[in-house]
Amino acid sequence: MQPISIRYVLAVARYGSIAEAASRLNVAGSAISRQIAKIEEQLGVELFERRARGMVPSAAGEILVAHGRRTELDASSAIAEIRELRGPHKGHIRVAAFDGFALEPLPRMMSDFRGSYPQVTFDLYLGNSFEIARQVKDGEADIGVTFNHPSPRGVDVVHVSRRLVSIVVPKDHALAKRRGVTLKDISRYPLALPDKSRTQRQMIETAFARHGLRVEPAMSSNSVAAMRQFAKSAGAVVFSSSRIAEEADAEGLKVVPIRDDGVAETVIHVITMEKRTLPATVQAFLEIVLGRLRSGD
């Protein structure tokens, strides 16, 4: 349902070289080269910049690639809607999210959705916000949920949530009985922090520095689940912006607000591909996600 020449352009953009695109598509590299050269001749521009590490779309190429990806996804949406005529809410939904959100509310949302529409299937990708935004932009994910990350060109921000940062500690921790804590209070206890690649780590370190405090984590990780387990076993403090009290209580943990003004709020974006019309099933699940976020879940 898409011209073969556009398929070849998309493949080269995705895999970074004609040779790799040819291998993935099981066609001759010369055939891909001819099709790309034909389009370039018709348009009077080069679609790719040839670099030492491979081929990268030019400014003109980016426009064509973005159009091609939307066309590809629109065709998939049309097919999905036609199939839904045989029965409502069948299909596959691809979600990419940062781990704090993916580990906690998302699986529950998916389970509830499948309770109503058991024929729907999901892919859930956990990663950093940069990679999540890239997947949505490139059409590899239908819905993205990013954390403290400016959304790039090529995506639409469909929802923004701002949340205050709290700490999560075991129920028997000395801070668990407090109605609020300061960074000075927190600094007296072992900390489990995100690793230095995460934006939340930078935010935490900056907040401590403003109060003349040094951050010496007992443990750092790119996994929220690992930090949570360490908190339970070592009595450590974990920073959080997405946990709710009921979930923490079920795991033997307690959420305690931070009272210092120096701790910035976090920002969660829900994103989709720019100008893309989502399949009905994906749109229905997106509304579930947005409803939960608007209610403060």
Structure, explained:
- The strands form three sheets. A five-stranded mixed sheet has the order 4-3-5-12-6, with helices on both faces. Strands 9-8-10-7-11 form a five-stranded mixed sheet, sandwiched between helices.
- Helix 1 packs across helix 3 (29-43) and helix 1 crosses helix 4 (59-84).
- The model has no long low-confidence stretch (mean pLDDT 85).
- The protein folds into three domains: 4-66, Orthogonal Bundle (Arc Repressor Mutant, subunit A), CATH 1.10.10.10; 87-162 and 267-294, D-Maltodextrin-Binding Protein, domain 2, CATH 3.40.190.10; 165-264, D-Maltodextrin-Binding Protein, domain 2, CATH 3.40.190.290.
- The chain contains twelve helices and twelve strands.
- The radius of gyration is 23 Å and the shape is elongated.
- The chain has 297 residues and is of the alpha/beta class.
- By DSSP, the count of extended strands is 12
Q: Judging by the overall fold, what is the CATH architecture of the largest domain?
A: 3-Layer(aba) Sandwich
CATH class of the largest domain: Alpha Beta
> Percentage of helical residues?
40-55%
Q: Write down the Rg.
A: 23 Å
Mean pLDDT: 85
Shape descriptor reads elongated
Q: In what range is the share of β-strand residues? A: 15-25%
Order of helices and strands: HHHEEHEHHEHEEEHEHEHEHEEH
Task: Point out poorly predicted stretches.
Answer: none
How many H/I helical runs? 12
Major sheet description: 5 strands, mixed
Strand order in the sheet with the most strands: 4-3-5-12-6
Q: In whole angstroms, how far apart are the ends? A: 40 Å
